[in-house]
Amino acid sequence: MNFYNGRLTISAVPFFILLISPFSLHDIGWLFDRYICGVNTVDFAVKSISYYKETDLNTNASTFFTQVVVTSSGWTRPDSNNVSAPIDLRLAFEDGTVIDTSWSETGDNIPIRQTFTFKTKSAPVYAQLDPWNKITDDFNYANNSLMVHDFLRPVVKWADRIFDFFQNALLSTGVLV
């Protein structure tokens, strides 16, 4: 092993990985590539939240389809299976429901974009990446969460009512003709 003032040098990292891997029962090469040998900055971001509502005309039940777009940039090389450490995603809804899921990146040192789609009974309120701050080397924590704009909610509500009225009027007219 190569030591310099009591610290492991970079040339000793492959030996250390070989020494530790049998005890961890996992390939930990990604950990060293990212945290010790990596030089890239890492930035995760929630780019957008969009949703739309569908109403079943027979049962009058509403279903919301939510799409959350998540990106990352500057991720270091993934492991041999082309997978990196999982990142948690939390999505909260108006009725208090919270969905927690995780996202594993794939790719080879390129900006990555992932779209999540959820089908729920309530409209989304916010989405947050890494809510427990497990990823310590995130460059900008400010873009890890995004709220649905509250000032647009009344406009969307009234526009939805107007479109429902026109849709019902057209359906009623179609039945009469």
**Order of neighbouring strands in the sheet with most strands:** 6-5-8-9
CATH architecture of the largest domain: Sandwich
- Number of helical elements: 3
Any idea what the radius of gyration is? 23 Å
Query: Can you tell me the CATH class of the largest domain?
Result: Mainly Beta
- Which class of secondary structure composition applies to the elements? alpha+beta
Helical content band: 10-25%
Order of helices and strands: EEHHEEEEEEEH
The average pLDDT score comes to: 77
Distance between the termini: 87 Å
Give the strand content: 35-45%
| Strand segment count | 9
Major sheet summary line:
4 strands, antiparallel
Task: List the domain count as a whole number.
Answer: 2
Shape: elongated
CATH level 3 topology of the largest domain? Immunoglobulin-like
Uncertain runs: 76-83
Structure description:
- The structure is a single chain.
- This protein has two domains: 1-38, no CATH class; 41-168, Sandwich (Immunoglobulin-like).
- Helices cover 25% and strands 35% of the residues.
- The chain has three helices and nine strands, in the order E-E-H-H-E-E-E-E-E-E-E-H.
- It has a four-stranded antiparallel β-sheet, with no helix packed on it. The protein has a three-stranded antiparallel β-sheet with strand order 3-4-7, with no helix packed on it.
- The longest helix is centred in the C-terminal third of the chain and has 24 residues, at 153-176.
- The radius of gyration is 23 Å and the shape is elongated.
- The termini are far apart.
